[in-house]
Predict the structure.
Amino acid sequence: MNDSPATRPVVLDVWCELQCPDCHHALDDLRALRARYGDRLEVRLRHFPLDKHKHAYAAAQAAEEAAEQGRGWPYIEAVLARTAELAAKGEPVLLEVARELGLDAEEFDTALIDGRHLLAVDADQAEGKAIGVTGTPTYVIGDERLDGGKSQEGLRGRIEEIADRLLART
């Protein structure tokens, strides 16, 4: 692939956690952005598990395992759609979603036990803290950080404005 500025997608980092009700509400915006821009916008989920959500850290590790098994976004969307159930039932929900998507649930269980994805989750969280992320969802596009934890109102429009501006430069 030619990696010149004209062919590189705009990157949208979404600092998120999979037990967060606000991230659940942001799912429609993320789907709309992915549909509108396709491969011109690279939406990257960045893990930022919050202490107040008991199963968020395990969910982040499970999302990493889903990505390793080639189904990262479908898994992320399925878990975000079930934040209340995850809060109530915990890790069995993570394995149930894996099975529903045809993933190797036994490998998920093993990954959660052996901690093979801890470093990736910790690295995301550390980077988020370093750039001032305090809650989820937080969006970073271009050099702008947008906090969706306070309100999602108008954020998709603002992200689209920035993405359009950045894409026009290429």
Q: What stands out?
A: Helices lie at 21-37, 56-68, 72-80, 83-89, 91-100, 105-114, 118-130, 155-169. The chain has a mean pLDDT of 91.
